[in-house]
């Protein structure tokens, strides 16, 4: 009998619940030991433990709610052949933070977890004109695609395009 994807999901969920219960027990047992039974106030250790747990919870929640998008595309030359190893740079216009990568063996590039905002994309490869695309606006949860066509030339020449992505 083969396991279906629903069976696998239920098994993984049970394992994660068991792990969560175990971690909770590891936190609660020492905390119970830190609570005095003679009626006085809880120890500083317990207060510190609760404060640390709350801080970690807040940090994880902030990380999970970060608004991001992704940008993908294929780098080709004018004949339609893929360009392998092209340097693709995505730069945030507002913060000047840039991320760079090279196109893979299929000419593809992928920028994931990109904070929303305004960007410019540049693509460079030896023997081709530099490509520069300005005016890219990424929205929350957008899976944008921008295919690039490089023209034969020198990297000192720049082909500049202004416009948004699809």
Please tell me about this protein's structure:
The chain contains 2 helices and 9 strands. The protein is of the alpha/beta class and 166 residues long. The chain has 2 domains: 5-64; 68-162, Carboxypeptidase-like, regulatory domain (Immunoglobulin-like). Strands 3-2-5-6-9 form a 5-stranded mixed beta sheet, with no helix packed on it. Strands 1, 4, 7 and 8 form a 4-stranded mixed beta sheet that branches. Strand 2 (87-92) and strand 3 form a beta hairpin. The protein is elongated and about 85 Å long. The model has no long low-confidence stretch (mean pLDDT 79).
Low-pLDDT residue intervals, each spanning 5 or more residues:
none
> Strand arrangement, largest sheet?
3-2-5-6-9
Shape: elongated
Beta-strand percentage? 25-35%
Number of strands: 9
CATH class of the largest domain: Mainly Beta
Number of domains: 2
What is the residue-averaged pLDDT?
A: 79
Q: How would you name the oligomeric state of the polypeptide chains in this document?
A: single chain
Order of helices and strands: HHEEEEEEEEE
> So, the CATH homologous superfamily of the largest domain?
Carboxypeptidase-like, regulatory domain
Rg? 26 Å
CATH architecture of the largest domain: Sandwich
Structural class: alpha/beta
Task: Report the CATH topology name of the largest domain.
Answer: Immunoglobulin-like
How much helix, percentage-wise, in residues?
Answer: 25-40%
The profile of the biggest β sheet is: 5 strands, mixed
Gap from first CA to last CA: 44 Å
Q: Count the DSSP helices.
A: 2
């Amino acid at each position: 009998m083969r396991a279906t994807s629903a069976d696998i999901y239920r098994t993984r969920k049970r394992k994660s619940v068991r792990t969560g219960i175990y971690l909770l027990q590891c936190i609660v047992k020492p905390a119970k030991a830190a609570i005095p039974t003679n009626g006085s106030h809880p120890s500083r250790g317990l207060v510190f433990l609760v404060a640390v747990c709350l801080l970690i919870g807040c940090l994880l929640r902030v990380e999970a709610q970060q608004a991001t998008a992704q940008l993908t595309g294929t780098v080709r030359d004018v004949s339609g052949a893929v360009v392998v190893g092209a340097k693709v740079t995505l730069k945030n216009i507002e913060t000047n933070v840039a991320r760079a990568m090279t196109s893979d063996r299929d000419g593809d590039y992928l920028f994931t977890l990109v904070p929303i905002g305004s960007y410019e994309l540049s693509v460079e490869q030896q023997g081709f004109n530099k490509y520069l695309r300005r005016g890219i606006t990424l929205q929350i949860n957008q899976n944008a695609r921008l295919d690039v066509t490089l023209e034969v030339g020198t990297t000192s020449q720049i082909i500049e395009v202004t416009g948004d992505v699809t």
